[in-house]
Amino acid sequence: MPPDRRRTPRTSPLAPAPLRRADVPQPAGSPRRPPGAAAVLRAILDHGPVARSTVARLTGLSPAAVTGHSTQFVARGLVAERAQTPGPRGLGRPHIPLEIDTSRYLVAGAHIAVAHSTLALMDLRGRIVASDREPHRDRDPGQVLGGLAARLPPMVRAHAGGRTVLGLGLATGQWVDPDAGVIVDHPRLGWRDVAAREVLTAATGLPVHVDSHSRALARAEQLFGAVATRGSVVLLFVGNVVDAAFATSGGVHRGPRSAAGSVAHLPVGPDTASDTTAGIPPAEPCTCGTPGCLQSEASEPALVRQAAARGLHVADFRALLDLALAGEPRAVALFRRRASLVGRAVALLLDMFDPEVVVVVEPGAGRLPECLQVLRAEVGARSWVCDDPERAVVPSSFTGSVLAVAGAAVALGALYADPLGPWPALPAVS
């Protein structure tokens, strides 16, 4: 039976319970602005340094509209003008190329995992400036969120270089409601209805944006990742928790309850005969009741348990990954098995959504070439619609910095979606 979602919310000094999302104040509204501003800033991000005339051609906007938006961006310090260059073949008016200005502002990001939290600073081009990770001393939401807020000022002092932090993004797994700024349900942490935005805004004084890490990473892929992800992408995150996101035409699908992406319990099924021969025990029962679901077979805790069954008594998943990277045969075999199971889920997602690309956020696929080969082979054998797994299935663009990118991408994605919004520290534009 699935868990009872009507259970009493966990209490916290900083997140009082009970809480209804309807009771959480929405962020201050801003007047609706045409999407042209976001399109202009995105074109400058993608192609800068770039002339205004080229931006007009890329966006389909009039030269006057592009000039108006870019003038506002320059005034706000989001965009910088480079030295003039001659027009084509020395004719016409000189061009003044535009590029994203990384000298004035940063965004901060936080990612909350099951065992630890990651804090990061990111510039406006999506590059990580600094990051650190600390284990949870206490999983109480008040302690975790308060600890993140306390860690931010020292990081800014040490690494911002005088730049102003525009906002803070928070990402985590499971069910997150971005509109309410609430972590609705995170069973692995034991959190329910935690008003994260409210707590962090009060503690830091910054605008805070909250989202699931899979949606944040899908948005990061579309902003800063491979060009192939710009049209439509499914992102599958396989870690301590397993979830996914679907993005198309620059937007990420959330669903009416912000619950889209719950794929942890897709049935992938173990290879019973080969697993028995290899000494891998049956998966521990999952709360979903589905035998052989993706969470119970391929999550990080599952891999650590499987390692112990093979005589590899590692302290944690990172230690197991280090063994695999060093070529330890039993560790490599476990990651290959995991890649095969993940490949089955990817084949299902490809057939369900038919995206241009599936991005797999899983360290085996990102750092062990043989695992990516196994994963793609499984997709090729099982998918009805994918005729080129080499093109359609790719590792994360941010392997090695996934968690740092996830939190910061929540804030930076909000900036690129509404660059003329009421961001603090930006000069007013009439």
Automatic annotation (TrEMBL):
Top-rank taxon, per record: Bacteria
Positions of region (Disordered): 1-35
Protein name: ROK family protein
Species lineage: Bacteria, Bacillati, Actinomycetota, Actinomycetes, Kitasatosporales
Pfam families, A to Z: ROK (PF00480)
Family statement drawn from the similarity comment of this UniProt entry: Belongs to the ROK (NagC/XylR) family.
